[in-house]
């Protein structure tokens, strides 16, 4: 069996949040190094990277399994500075059919910190789009990711899992209301304008916050607010807005801290406790912010501990859909794998026919050659129909290698069936 699809990475189930943060921070550099002429020589044909607060996963299409995996882990370890040896210990390697089922499960929200999380399907689509834009994907990976999106939609419509829009931030907001009361009519400050900021704004609006201010350390607050109904905050007004806010949500993922204890100088020590939701892997908060008497920091570790258990029946139904869809996808891929052999067989026979027609044309003229051509093509199509259909049926029982050998024996055609496990 030729192994082509490989998954290297891990999620919050296996990796610490600190390691996920390191990988997420370096994902662009990892992507640049993973897909070059040099790595192509090591067997890496292309790939798609998913990097979120929950996971770092590299889906790779490789020609040579061991060379490709070693090359990828070396690059991830070096670029992220986790180290090659530690990367070998921390990152899991999956190949073959397990890759398909895992991605389908991820896209459906079954592997998220919050089961049924709404954002992950969009993150999977975004990862594919980025790979397409940077020309790092392959046709096989595109088929895989497109099917994952379809499976995610089927899970939502068939089971209701994720239909409520549950996400990391909604769990955090529920926790804020449990600890500090309703958010209706409260003023919120959002740090960041990235992809997740849009999710946060929508959630804050659903919780009926009356005023949502946005601060961006990169200067994008004004542009973001024009399309999201929020109020931009300039650098010189950040401390003032913090003094008047009832809630802060930090999700910028900036390389540098945005909030320090000094930033809260406008808040008196006897003011009500201000909850701060910190959902960025690279925290926007300096460590001393947690030590302030009037802050209640709710970070990813706290959210994970309070994540509710999803309805068991819906989860089981979703897993059945994922498993069945993975089996169907793998059968389709096996069917496609025999197509080059069928093409070679038909091309070989077609060449024999053309040679014979050319001989008839040279001896008996064009008109007779055309009649012979029609007859030969009609007979050939009838003769090759059954072998072609039979070839695809054999892929369902994984006997395609026997078929390739039979074609090679009968027609003398060399077919590519190199094993690479």
Task: Please provide a written account of the structure.
The protein is an alpha/beta fold and 421 residues long. Helices cover 55% and strands 13% of the residues. It is built from 16 helices and 10 strands. The strands form 2 sheets. A 6-stranded parallel β-sheet has the order 7-6-5-8-9-10, sandwiched between helices. Strands 2-3-1-4 form a 4-stranded antiparallel β-sheet, sandwiched between helices. β5, α10 and β6 form a beta-alpha-beta unit. α6 crosses α14. The model has no long low-confidence stretch (mean pLDDT 83).
How many beta-strand elements? 10
Helix content class? 55-70%
Radius of gyration equals 28 Å
Report the CATH topology name of the largest domain. Answer: Beta Polymerase, domain 2
Q: Architecture of the largest domain in CATH?
A: 2-Layer Sandwich
Helix segment tally: 16
Strands side by side in the biggest sheet: 7-6-5-8-9-10
Q: Which percent band covers the strand fraction? A: 5-15%
Order of helices and strands: EHHHEEHHEHHHHEHEHEHEEEHHHH
Low-confidence stretches: none
| Number of domains as seen in the coordinates | 3
User: CATH class of the largest domain, anyone?
Assistant: Alpha Beta
| Shape verdict | elongated
Biggest β-sheet description:
6 strands, parallel
| SS content category | alpha/beta
